Amino acid sequence: MRQDHLITATQLSRADIEAVLDRAAEIDADPGAVADRYREAVLALCFFEPSTRTKMSFETAIKRLGGSTTDMGTVESSSVKKGESLADTVRVVEGYADALVLRHPSEGAAKMAAEFVDVPVINAGDGAGQHPSQTLLDLYTIRENVGLDDLSIGIMGDLKYGRTVHSLAEALTNFDVRQHFISPESLKLPRSVRFDLHNSGAQLREHTDLEEVLPELDVLYVTRIQRERFPDETEYEQIAGEYQIDADTLELADDDLAVMHPLPRVDEIDPAVDSLSQATYFEQAHNGVPVRMALLDVLLSEGEL
Amino acid sequence: MSDRELRVSKIRNGTVIDHVSGGQALNVLSILGIDGSEGLGVSVVMNVPSDRLGLKDVVKVEDRELSQSEVDVISLIAPEATINIIREFDVVEKNRVDRPETVVGLLSCPNRNCITNANEPVETKFDVVDDGVRCTYCGTIIREELAAHIAPE
């Protein structure tokens, strides 16, 4: 099926994923080969929520492809502040750009935006929904480090509100992966994600304690327990800190374990872990550029995934 | 049913929705957007004995023939319902309801953070799944109390 946009990870087949990852590997090996490919291209950045990695890596990606960006800026400095709807904003912005990267606090925002415009829309995070371009760089990092089949992964932290978790878990169902979900009871996977995982026949187990599963993991994907997702500060305080790892925690783990994190971290991973061979999260963040270059190349050249 | 037991008389022209799950008749009217202001004759019988359902409701709407697509949505809360089109006191058409693939504009998404609750120019849309409906935009699944999510007109 022709797909002009990247909205959720469930839309991605194994072939779609491998096409982007293979392209990313080619670009990673020889970035100069694509330096002028999209000299006229303009990428619109519409970020209704703060972002460092996603926004900057998309910006770097289009620049390394020879293109440029047009940036909505912050909500406070844009017409959104005057009450403009998202539907109107994206219809205006599509006239300025060849593709649109959208981050928005409401779930389903990118899906709706894609219905109003003809240029490709990339969902760069919709509330507690999805973040599929992050998933592509996560998968690239996993493939580079431990391979994507016969894999045992632990996904830990805020599984309820963590959009990177939702997209990653759904994309992993395309591969031979045992998924372990480690979280407090109150932050377990939401019903909608379980529904998709069960429909895909995913192998998943749920835990409240990392230690019972850590020795068998190839990848430990740690996520931040997000303060901004909690309506109640007391609930946040109570749970934060229960799911942190440090060098002692990792003594139980395999030496080849890849510890990943979409970042930013607060205190889920002790800085002492950074110098261990298992720390993979900065490499993961750097992979955002070649993977997003590959994604843009696929969407801008073929107009489909 | 004898005259002593007869609760609602036959209608001349219109639609009779029979075998509605007991207690759901008012929700059926909500789904159809009928609130009495249209001036149509509407009869509602609730919680009467039924061999098939135990208790059933019946809704009669005079001088209006409901389309199949309108009544398909009723299947979400009354899967056993039958639709009888009446002309000159005779049943000229009798149909069962079919579950639709999608429901557009009828339900509101219970996820307050869904884009369909953000004053955007977009109608709600739900895909019908095995045992409920699922918001096309945010993925939220409604299984229980479907009628409670019927969007106000």
UniProtKB/TrEMBL annotation, chain A:
Role summary: Catalyzes the condensation of carbamoyl phosphate and aspartate to form carbamoyl aspartate and inorganic phosphate, the committed step in the de novo pyrimidine nucleotide biosynthesis pathway.
Residues that bind L-aspartate: K82, R163, R224
Name recorded for this polypeptide: Aspartate carbamoyltransferase
HAMAP family listed in its UniProt record: Asp_carb_tr
Pathway info: Pyrimidine metabolism; UMP biosynthesis via de novo pathway; (S)-dihydroorotate from bicarbonate: step 2/3
Enzyme superclass (EC): transferase
GO molecular function list: amino acid binding; aspartate carbamoyltransferase activity
Gene (UniProt): pyrB
Positions contributing to carbamoyl phosphate binding: R53, T54, R103, H131, Q134, L263, P264
Assembly: Heterooligomer of catalytic and regulatory chains.
Keywords carried by this UniProt record: Pyrimidine biosynthesis, Transferase
Organism superkingdom: Archaea
NCBIfam families: asp_carb_tr (TIGR00670), PRK00856.1 (NF002032)
GO term, biological process aspect, one: amino acid metabolic process
Organism: Halonotius roseus
Domain Aspartate/ornithine carbamoyltransferase Asp/Orn-binding residues, every copy: 150-298
Pfam families with a match to the protein in the record: OTCace (PF00185), OTCace_N (PF02729)
The reaction(s) this protein catalyses: carbamoyl phosphate + L-aspartate = N-carbamoyl-L-aspartate + phosphate + H(+)
Alphabetical list of Gene3D superfamilies matching this protein: Aspartate/ornithine carbamoyltransferase
UniProtKB/TrEMBL annotation, chain B:
Domain Aspartate carbamoyltransferase regulatory subunit C-terminal: 103-145
Keyword check for Transit peptide: no
Gene3D superfamilies registered for this protein in UniProt: Aspartate carbamoyltransferase regulatory subunit, C-terminal domain, Aspartate carbamoyltransferase regulatory subunit, N-terminal domain
Binding positions (Zn(2+)): C109, C114, C135, C138
Cofactor: Zn(2+)
InterPro entries per UniProt: Asp_carbamoyltransf_reg_N, Asp_carbamoylTrfase_reg, Asp_carbamoyltrfase_reg_C, Asp_carbatrfase_reg_C_sf, Asp_carbatrfase_reg_N_sf
NCBIfam families tied to this protein: ATCase_reg
Subunit structure: Contains catalytic and regulatory chains.
Name listed for the protein in its UniProt record: Aspartate carbamoyltransferase regulatory chain
